[in-house]
């Protein structure tokens, strides 16, 4: 896979210098140690109805600290500076995690996030809030998934029939350094007509799996790419997983290995406006670098276009990707030992110009 590392990045500094205009991938460090929540890990991004961008992340003194909270920040359309992050969800004496912020077609902005009830994520539940004014104010929190071990991470999508599909997973095991085979991905499906959420079947695999990302290819055919389970020990057999649905996302196959490497790390996956599929992943079995992008133009059969968008002696974890109305692709991820969040912007052509 051909490499493109932007050496202008000064990731330990307060700001990243502007990238030269002839560069086709723009990277900015939007949040660092100087922003609230020294520890910053999964972040998500959405384009709001008015064209603003909104990022949610969780931060605190550490991953399993009870002082973690969910923070939100806005980039007003046409401006260049993100607002100072503000707390948008914080449960007293319990740690928060993995926020997913997303504006639905009816204008409601959803915030899903994890709430930890014990020492590990296997003790977590999922809570939610909504906003009816473009993420300016939020409702009270409400419990979304009460089963112990409930987790959220992936990007929601609107299905062709108008339903919403939210990736979820059920994490099991008490060891913070690995998950067990009973960890499984699934989806929550929402009907705007009935206002009800229903759960799909769970996706099984030999080592367990978590954090699915889904795309719809046709009315009946959907595919998802999924982080492998297991531990973080060095391996030569760490692969990204894949499952599919042939009934519009109601039921799912077991997960199978793909040709993509996976260092037990989250990925991002989405269908672009032109029907192409875009996968963001760490092209490595053991380390979360580089961060790579691959494009399929034939409905997930092949991925002949691929490029490393950032790499080097650092890690780039938990990518989350969207395509905005103007066609730009936006990726947010965590770096600098989980103290900084990057915002990466590019056009599909930046990847299509690089063929394997």
CATH architecture: 6 Propeller
Helix content: under 10%
Number of helices: 1
Number of domains: 1
Outline of this structure?
The chain is mainly beta and 356 residues long. The protein is 1% helix and 44% strand.
Description:
The protein is 1% helix and 44% strand. With 356 residues, it is an all-beta fold. Strands 10, 11, 12, 13 and 14 form a 5-stranded antiparallel sheet that branches. It has a 4-stranded antiparallel sheet with strand order 1-25-24-23, with no helix packed on it. It has a 4-stranded antiparallel sheet with strand order 2-3-4-5, with no helix packed on it. It has 1 helix and 25 strands. The chain has one domain (35-352): Neuraminidase (6 Propeller). The protein is globular. It starts with 24 loop residues before the first strand and ends with a helix. It has one helix at residues 349-352; strands spanning 25-31, 39-47, 53-60, 69-75, 86-89, 96-103, 109-116, 124-131, 142-145, 150-152, 157-158, 164-170, 184-191, 196-199, 209-216, 222-228, 239-245, 256-261, 268-271, 277-282, 291-296, 305-310, 317-323, 329-335, 340-346.
Set down the secondary structure blueprint:
Elements: E1 25-31, E2 39-47, E3 53-60, E4 69-75, E5 86-89, E6 96-103, E7 109-116, E8 124-131, E9 142-145, E10 150-152, E11 157-158, E12 164-170, E13 184-191, E14 196-199, E15 209-216, E16 222-228, E17 239-245, E18 256-261, E19 268-271, E20 277-282, E21 291-296, E22 305-310, E23 317-323, E24 329-335, E25 340-346, H1 349-352
Antiparallel strand pairs: 1-25, 2-3, 3-4, 4-5, 6-7, 7-8, 8-9, 10-12, 11-12, 12-13, 13-14, 15-16, 16-17, 17-18, 19-20, 20-21, 21-22, 23-24, 24-25
